[in-house]
Amino acid sequence: xxxxxxxxxxxxxxxxxxxxxxxxxxxxxxxxxxxxxxxxxxxxxxxxxxxxxxxxxxxxxxxxxxxxxxxxxxxxxxxxxxxxxxxxxxxxxxxxxxxxxxxxxxxxxxxxxxxxxxxxxxxxxxxxxxxxxxxxxxxxxxxxxxxxxxxxxxxxxxxxxxxxxxxxxxxxxxxxxxxxxxxxxxxxxxxxxxxxxxxxxxxxxxxxxxxxxxxxxxxxxxxxxxxxxxxxxxxxxxxxxxxxxxxxxxxxxxxxxxxxxxxxxxxxxxxxxxxxxxxxxxxxxxxxxxxxxxxxxxxxxxxxxxxxxxxxxxxxxxxxxxxxxxxxxxxxxxxxxxxxxxxxxxxxxxxxxxxxxxxxxxxxxxxxxxxxxxxxxxxxxxxxxxxxxxxxxxxxxxxxxxxxxxxxxxxxxxxxxxxx
Length: 420
What we know:
Blueprint: H1 3-15, H2 17-22, E1 27-31, E2 34-38, E3 46-50, H3 55-61, E4 64-65, E5 72-75, E6 80-89, E7 98-103, E8 106-114, H4 117-124, E9 126-128, H5 140-147, H6 154-160, E10 163-170, H7 178-195, E11 226-229, H8 234-244, H9 248-264, H10 269-279, H11 288-302, H12 306-317, H13 320-327, H14 331-334, E12 338-339, E13 345-346, H15 356-362, H16 366-379, H17 394-417
Parallel strand pairs: 7-11
Antiparallel strand pairs: 1-2, 2-3, 3-9, 4-5, 5-6, 6-10, 7-8, 8-10, 12-13
Helix pairs in contact: 3-4, 8-9, 9-12, 9-16, 9-17, 10-11, 12-17, 13-15, 13-17
């Protein structure tokens, strides 16, 4: 580096002091007589070209944090996360979506809106380096093309004519550490997906990055203006997240594991009440052995099969009307028995003239029992001796899809309502 470049770098470093301080992975470097900011998200596939006269970019950078685990920028002056999304048609209904998300007593405004000027400043100077990684250049490629039509084809120019860049804004939110925001994002993804199977998902970049979720039919509800989220068990949330990256038999099994997990910890309300009364006895300290025996008697007497507990937790937690919204899209399928490669067959779940009220009157334990039998046919290879398995064929994967949609709806509701 010659002396002039060294002096320019020093001046730029002074002007970018705040940006470099809050983004310790970022570096100001010179390559072939041009200044670059590299590793802004600790990501070596993206860099920003910067000049001393680009005051708009300098001001933007000094007010932004680049979270490594997210395709987003964090506006430090307003405490708002801006998730980098894509360009959308001007009449796309997503533009009008705004809502509140309440989680653990705190309410966060959420909305889709025109991307900020700061993001546009960044996109204009974005340099895409190396081959794309799982971060996909933090979604900046389409932004860069939108901002500089001189470098794209006439067809691409026509594509952008009626489109504008849209971002998802979340906050204001004060974040103490990265894990806190990841936990918020995971829960927000879960609840947005619950109300809209095609909702854009917040991408969380991790070593175990999963593929984008597959699109599903809505569960008969409209996206609300306000969402109050309660904490979902971490393991159940991990299972749900895993199911979004797969389809067919694996997705079914992930969702079934959510039900099994909930059933394992399910205790009948009457038993819970009787045990609670024993533990609240004022003389418990002086008669510990007697009270302990009474508690053991209650638990032993209550011992139930796993099948019974799973059916009980489903009946307790799930609204059959919402399940019916999924089933009625596949009436012909569920009104007939289905045979799978491998010899397994499942009986019809409904009759073709049923309504939501008919289903609500007869859905349990019939539906949980069908799900259990399908699960056993997927995982119990010993059943192959009697021709009762679901073989891992493409035809079976397609045939299983309606059942995946049904169990997904049930698993989501159990995750939310099992402790209510």
